[in-house]
Amino acid sequence: MNLVEELRGCFLFEKLTDDQLAWLAEHGVVCSYEAGVDVYREGDPAEWFFVLLDGGMQILKRAAGDDVPVVASSQKGVYGGATRAFVPDAGRLYETSMRTLGPTRMFQLKADDFAALLSEWFPMAVHLLAGLFVGMTNFEAVTSQRERLMALGSLSAGLAHELNNPAAAGVRAAHALRDRLQDARDGVRTAMTLLRPEAIELVISLEAEAEERARTAGTAQLRALETGDREDELADWLDERGVPDSLPLASTFVAAGLDVDWLSRLEEASGGHLGPVLRWFWARLEIVSLVDELESSATRISTLVSTIKGHSQMGRGPYGRADIHKGLESTLLILGHKVKGGIEVVRDYDQDLPSVPGYPGELNQVWTNLIDNAIDAMDGRGRLRLQTRRDGDTVVVEVGDEGPGMPPEVQKRIFEPFFTTKDVGKGTGLGLDVSYRIVVKRHHGDLRVQSSPGDTRFQVRLPLSPPAPRP
Q1: 346, 385 in Cβ contact below 8 A?
Q2: Within a domain: residue 359?
Q3: In a domain, 145, yes or no
Q4: Which stretch of DSSP H or E encloses residue 139?
């Protein structure tokens, strides 16, 4: 049997004319392969279009660093390889791998020849298929961009919520600091006019000691009952000496670690002018406390800004090494307003977990989607479980929740675009679809779910040695 007759026996070519079959036979080649041979590999330049003549083959797709069989066939005429060669700017890379199942013969046609024959013999079909492919590509890009914007909106809302508390605390501290500075100025002026020069030196040394006690007292945590007893004792001591506003003063002095014995030393040094000196000390200690509060607020704001910058990888190259734990923790920090309250975060981290090559910003989007969904599934109350481990050449990340779970029919569709179980207005149905594409297509990993009432787990597998990134 000559090659023309052999090609005519393939279902793929059975409607072609003799001239068309002769053209194929002239431009193509027949190659033989042993069993278990990779005819082509996913990600390699797509140079050939393959048609099975004899033997058997299977198509494989890379997932979590492994080649997963998608389809296997021994039917004459099944094909693979450069199937998108006719689409302009589609990218000439094999989307899958092909492996022989036994001794196999393949008809092979150069990708450029395959594109040329389709365009010449089936121009309408080429336009339709090219339009479909470009449309699907644009659809994926638009939906992915929309989901990124939705995720950015969620992060922005979370960041605004988290920034509000330290910003408001900083404003309150700044306003109070202005008043305390005036109180300190008045107290110093009054005390200086009443105290003898030698007493002023002694009082100033006690002021420095009080400030040092205030700094160290911040690290010591007193029980509420013990604090109340000390405040009552100090307030009584001040009342006995006719000092006004004894309760506010006692509260500040106790917080600074001062007691009756220390105040007795101050009384002795003040030479009968305890009231003005106490007002001076109270204002100074309040200023120290307010400055600490301002510093804490500014540090919190700086940390949040630094976290969101690292979380979105602003100002960095898109491809690099991703620290999984850092990404998870930054996600928890940004979603802190949703975690607080009834959510208990349970971490089971492999501290020796290596970093993962990939796109850190995109992986952070995955963690954001999975953790946000887990919190929503529990309606803000329950345990959020985060686990990381190494499994051979892959890193495994699990995000679990104690929500009501998903029935099997929902689990089958959970990664479909626009499929959502959330109420209208609360979900786009794109978060898990985008997460799946980031993990599987961009990082050659795997994303799956296991769910039962009270135990839902999303598992992400990322290879430690993925192929080179695609443009």
Answers
A1: yes
A2: yes
A3: no
A4: helix 123-194
Of the listed ranges 21-35, 185-199, 326-340, the least confidently predicted one is 185-199
Count of structural domains within the chain: 3
DSSP state of 442: I
Q: Residues 299, 220: one domain?
A: yes
Residues 125-184 pLDDT 10s: 666 666 666 666 665 555 556 555 555 565 666 666 667 767 777 888 888 888 888 877
Rounded to an integer, what distance in angstroms lies between the CA atom of residue 101 and that of residue 35? 5
Q: How far apart are CA 179 and CA 248, in angstroms?
A: 15
Using DSSP, state whether 448 is helix, strand or coil.
Answer: strand
- Cα separation, 189 vs 194, whole angstroms: 9
DSSP state of 51: E
Residue 70 shares a structural domain with residue 111: yes
The amino acid present at 351, given as its one-letter code, is Q
Note whether 331 and 261 are same-domain residues.
no
Distance CA 201, CA 212 (A): 17
Q: Rounded CA gap, 360 and 438, in Å?
A: 11
**DSSP 8-state code for residue 440:** I
178 & 234 share domain: yes
CA-based angle 345:326:378, to the nearest 5? 25
CB 438 within 8 A of CB 446: no
> Pick from 74, 102, 121: which residue ends a domain?
121
Q: Indicate the pTM of the whole model.
A: 0.48
- The token pair at 262 is 């220390």
Assign residue 48 the CATH number of its domain: 2.60.120.10
Q: Which domain holds residue 64?
A: 3-121
Distance from first CA to last CA of the chain, Å, rounded? 45
